[in-house]
Specification:
The complex is a heterodimer.
Chain A lengths: L2 H22 L1 H4 L6 H4 L9 H19 L4 E3 L9 E6 L8 H9 L12 E6 L22 E6 L8 H5 L5 E3 L5 E3 L9 H5 L6 E2 L14 E3 L11 E2 L5 H4 L6 H5 L5 E5 L6 H8 L1 E4 L11 E5 L2
Parallel strand pairs in A: 1-8, 2-12
Antiparallel strand pairs in A: 2-10, 3-4, 5-6, 7-9, 11-12
Chain B lengths: L1 H26 L28 H6 L22 E2 L5 E2 L31 E3 L5 E3 L3 H6 L3 H9 L5 E3 L8 E3 L29 H9 L1
Antiparallel strand pairs in B: 1-2, 3-4, 5-6
The chains are: A alpha+beta, B alpha+beta.
Chain lengths: 300, 213
């Protein structure tokens, strides 16, 4: 090899390497690079209470670093003799969408882009055809004549298709009927999103943006702790509230009292009363055999 | 040996290409995600848990000013106020009570003061079966006519609840009828809906199309 061709070849090599390095440069900007601790974290169901205590501490530190406020993260377990059921009174709902935004506030969803667990469908009277549902209604005042409103969120199915398709068991059904997601185990394949017939699952396409002063510090591991980019999330019946005995946020905010929640195994609960005495006319898309724990009913 | 003669040119072109790529990667020409449109935060009124109205019982609890409920600062004791009607038998509301809009059902007979207020003691309510109730006990008063709804309310199926579903861990708060319904015109008022889902990058023409259909 003569001097000239050596120089030529090395020029190509150097510039090639430079191009390679430049193409990999976004890696240097990558934030949230998993720490060894996070990378080696065990599967939720295999964690001992000690492991969980460490994980909770890690999450609290991460949130504090990112949002400047120390949250209170808990790993709440299902209670014995409790199975949650949700009932929604279609006669009462006026379609004001307050539940949508109370949910976002409670569950630390991304504000930009928006992630909302509840969709409110405006439907013409006399039809149950979901195809006629309208999301983007914006009249001066609701309710509008000739329409009823149907809020749809995760139906917490007894036979959940989303759980069956998850290749890594990052989502499962708990004994109190809540289908949960372990955000640290999810690989973001979005199979569950495709499998859900209710369009209830949401994907974090970008890093969720939550203003620091809007963060809800009362958090649960399987509930409303901040998610990272690339994981699924969905309604979990406000696990951080309901497993502590409280009503979900969407119920508390409903101005007309259309939303009812409780323990179906308790014969004195309001949901038992409703299922016993009211015209509970649908589980949404009943024919699919998913057997939702979310019931729509009418008064009278 | 033609291709050997071309080699310097090819190598030069390759170097240039790689340098251009380096520049492009460093400037991040195509890897930069498009800027998200900014989405305004929702107004705090849409996430407020407040009831539509404030009941008398709630005013007592919060120790608010109750002077509006002193009937006998204007009315005379032991004197039944007279109701006046126009020629179509509609109740005439005296100007002192002009803030009251009567709209309890569609029939005139449901819009008479002394169906609920006690004409002999204006600081009490009366039910049709002759019971007397305090102003703070309006819910049983409503229940004396609206039986099935009262039954639902007692079971927790009608009206707003908050607090705890689990009676072991806490207790639920029940709202009175008048926390949501105006007793003189009980139909629940319509209201402005909170903003719908943001269409992100959808063109405004598309959104308008969606809204009108």
């Amino acid at each position: 090899m003569d001097r000239r061709s050596f120089l030529r070849t090395s020029a190509v090599l150097t510039s090639g390497l430079a191009a390679l390095a430049a193409s990999l440069s976004p890696l240097f900007e990558m934030q949230d690079f998993p720490t060894a601790e996070k990378f080696l974290q065990k599967y939720y169901k295999e964690m001992t209470p000690d492991d969980m205590a460490k994980v909770v501490k890690r999450i609290e530190n991460e949130v504090e670093r990112q949002y400047g406020m120390r949250p209170h993260v808990r790993d709440l377990k299902p209670m014995d003799g409790v199975e949650f059921v949700y009932c929604l009174n279609l006669t009462r709902c006026i379609g004001c969408r307050k539940c949508v935004h109370a949910c976002v506030k409670e569950n630390n969803q991304s504000r930009n882009p928006e992630i909302q667990y509840i969709r409110v469908l405006k439907m013409p009277h006399g039809s149950m055809d979901m195809e006629k549902g309208e999301h983007n209604y914006a009249p001066e005042s609701v309710p509008e004549k000739g329409f009823f409103y149907m809020p749809v969120q995760c139906q917490q199915c007894k036979n959940p298709p989303c759980v069956k398709v998850c290749p890594v068991h990052a989502t499962w059904q708990e004994t109190d009927g809540i289908t949960v997601i372990d955000y640290d185990w999810c690989i973001g394949c979005r199979y569950c999103e495709a499998a859900c017939p209710y369009w209830a699952r949401r994907f974090n396409f970008t890093k969720p943006e939550i203003p620091k002063d809007k963060l809800n510090p009362e958090m649960a591991y399987l509930g409303n702790r901040p998610r990272r980019q690339g994981v699924m999330e969905k309604c979990h019946f406000c696990i951080q509230r309901t497993r502590a005995g409280k009503y979900p946020a969407c119920l508390e905010v409903c101005p007309v009292g259309a939303r009812k929640f409780g323990n179906i195994l308790d014969p004195n609960s309001e949901v038992s009363y409703i299922l016993r005495t009211k015209r509970v006319f649908i589980q949404l898309k009943e024919e699919l055999g998913t057997s939702p724990r979310f019931f729509y009913y009418f008064d009278v | 040996m033609k291709h050997k003669a071309n080699r310097p040119k090819v190598l030069f072109a390759l170097s240039l290409l790689f340098l251009a790529l380096t520049g492009a990667f460093l400037l991040n020409l195509w890897g930069r995600p498009a800027r998200m449109p900014s989405i305004p935060l929702v107004d705090a009124t849409y996430t407020s848990n407040a009831t539509v109205r404030v009941s008398y019982a709630e005013l007592i609890r919060t120790k608010a000013d109750l002077s509006d409920f002193d009937c006998y600062t204007c009315h005379e004791r032991n004197k039944t106020p007279q109701l006046r009607f126009d020629d179509k038998h509609n109740l005439l509301i005296p100007k002192e009570h002009s803030n009251i809009v009567m709209g309890h059902g569609s029939h005139n007979r449901n819009n008479l003061c002394f169906n609920c207020h006690d004409e002999n003691n204006l600081e009490l309510f009366q039910t049709r079966d002759g019971r007397q109730l305090k102003l703070s006990e309006s819910t049983p008063l409503c229940g004396s006519c609206h039986g099935p709804t009262y039954r639902d309310w007692e079971a927790g199926a009608h009206g707003r609840t908050s607090g705890f579903w689990s009676h072991d861990l806490g207790s639920p708060t029940r709202q009175d009828c008048v926390s949501c319904h105006n007793p003189h015109a009980p139909r629940f008022p319509s209201r402005h809906p909170a903003p719908g889902p943001h269409p992100l990058r959808a063109s405004t023409a598309l959104t308008e199309n969606l809204i009108t259909h």
